């Protein structure tokens, strides 16, 4: 007798379909759980910004008993956050502009040209990614003092740019290398020069990688505390992390005002990510699929 193959196949098909559905449901459950765990610190920060110190100690993980909306206005005025916002914007945007311009030019040369010391140059920038940033504080302080750059914007813009360049060049070089040579040859045949190729073709095509570099470089400059603490002493030049630190001293910490100031400080970074998130995802997945 022959086995009932026709009856066995639907059973196998139903079992495989069931396993796929279970696997898909498990995948989305894990993804949802990961999203909740990731977003919870942000939600906790925002809700805790409306608490008093007593409410913070009594209900550290609960909702505020009384929502203190005035925490934001008091924090803004008492720490002079408006001036700190301006200083952080100047430093972050200045270092970002230098980083994008220098890294784009260097990456264009490293990715599209062949020369003798190319491998050594790439290794030089990769080694730059391995240097601990804070180990350079003392040498940089001495250098800035000798150059009379302490208590100026340049004391922060130049180090931020220097430490952002290795990562930026690494990302942009990898992205520009993946662009086909046919585009470059067609541009030269149409009479486009090197600068035209760089500004009209390579820069627009590398927008996803540039967006990734923009977010990473801006976040580092915006959130840095140690360099600003060492290189800046003037009150009118203090950046946002230094202004937020004023809410804590050796005796007590006003958690409500501190968290309110921190909530205000993350608004530009959230807006920046929302603005460039699509291009950033393209830059991170570029080259993952060939063909």
Automatic annotation (TrEMBL):
Q: Which UniProt keywords apply?
A: Cell membrane, Membrane, Transmembrane, Transmembrane helix, Transport
Occurrences of domain ABC transmembrane type-1 (ranges): 85-276
Query: Which stretches are transmembrane?
Result: 25-46, 89-110, 122-142, 154-176, 197-222, 255-276
Its placement in the membrane is given as: Multi-pass membrane protein
A Pfam family annotated for this chain is BPD_transp_1
Record's subcellular location: Cell membrane
- Entry coiled-coil feature ranges: none
Q: Which family does it belong to?
A: Belongs to the binding-protein-dependent transport system permease family.
What protein name is recorded for this chain? Answer: Carbohydrate ABC transporter permease
């Amino acid at each position: 007798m022959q086995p009932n193959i026709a009856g066995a196949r639907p059973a196998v098909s139903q079992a495989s379909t069931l396993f796929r559905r279970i696997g898909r449901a498990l995948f989305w459950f894990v993804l949802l759980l990961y999203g909740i765990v990731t977003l919870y610190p942000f939600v906790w920060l925002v809700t805790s910004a409306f608490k008093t110190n007593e409410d913070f100690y009594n209900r550290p993980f609960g909702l505020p008993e009384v929502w203190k909306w005035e925490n934001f206005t008091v924090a803004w005025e008492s720490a002079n956050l408006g001036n700190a916002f301006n200083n952080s914007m100047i430093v972050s945007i200045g270092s970002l502009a230098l980083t994008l311009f220098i890294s784009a030019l260097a990456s264009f040369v490293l990715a599209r040209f062949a020369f003798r010391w190319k491998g050594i140059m790439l290794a030089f920038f990769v080694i730059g990614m391995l240097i601990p940033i804070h180990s350079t504080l003392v040498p940089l302080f001495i250098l800035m003092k000798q150059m009379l750059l302490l208590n100026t914007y340049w004391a922060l813009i130049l180090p931020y740019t220097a430490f952002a360049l290795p990562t930026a060049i690494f990302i942009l070089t990898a992205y520009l290398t993946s662009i086909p040579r046919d585009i470059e040859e067609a541009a030269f045949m149409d009479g486009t020069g090197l600068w035209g190729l760089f500004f009209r073709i390579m820069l627009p095509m590398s927008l996803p990688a540039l967006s990734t570099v923009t977010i990473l470089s801006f976040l580092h400059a915006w959130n840095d505390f140690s360099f600003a603490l060492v290189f800046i002493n003037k009150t009118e030049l203090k950046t946002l992390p230094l202004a937020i630190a004023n809410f804590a001293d050796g005796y007590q910490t006003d958690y409500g005002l501190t968290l309110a100031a921190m909530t205000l400080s993350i608004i530009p970074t959230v807006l920046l990510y929302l603005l460039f998130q699509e291009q950033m995802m393209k830059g991170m997945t570029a080259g993952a699929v060939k063909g």
